[in-house]
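sanity check this fold:
=====
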Amino acid sequence: MSELTGKKEIIRQLKEKILSMEGFGTGPDSRLHDFGLGPMNAAFPGGAFPVGAIHEFISPTEACAAAANGFLTGLLSTLMKKGGVCLWISVRRKLFAPALKFFGVEPHRVIFIDVKREKEALWVMEQGLKCNSLAAVVAELRDISFAESRRLQLAVETSKVTGFLHRQCLGTENTLACVSRWKIRPVASRTDGFPGVGFPCLEVELVKIRNGRPGIWQFEWKNGTFRVVPERTRTVVKPPIPQKQQHYA
């Protein structure tokens, strides 16, 4: 029995070592954060949202970009619970800073850096990711090459800082060294039959995740955390039955 237990422990350590080599945070620290993602955790290697890694978000429209910023801020609120600040880098920033408080992030704990060129944004992000006193780094930009994303991933593997690349209105979805790719879309909020506007609701698509299982989920931001939206009842509208034409003499 003890021999079997020893083999299982060796296999567990090997799995954690392989995941660590592939850019995923392992060990107890990676499970300290509860992002409220519920069943989505089963899609991640190790059953927990990968911290200390680079995540890519793609937003083809302004509405999707706003939804992605909301989802990002919800994740940041968990990462920043134990202190630290966030670095938010933009080339053409459209984020309304006071709105961060709605998702649990105090604006004064976010350092905004606005630059004129995307090359400058990438340089600032790389330098920020090397600073292990930061809770996270977010960069809003459009284009980035695989080699540039690889440098960012190498930086977080040393510092264990979580990075988010938010690519808006990009031309092509090229391959990057990020551990995951996301697409966030706004969906109609639920009111449970009552009048008025419900809680913010998002469709979260995990397009790809290294060594994980992609999927689509719906969440709403309620009482300071994400909550899974139950499957909505779909009403199938059948087309009308065509009536027989009548011919009159």
In short: The radius of gyration is 22 Å. The chain has a mean pLDDT of 82. The chain has four helices and nine strands.
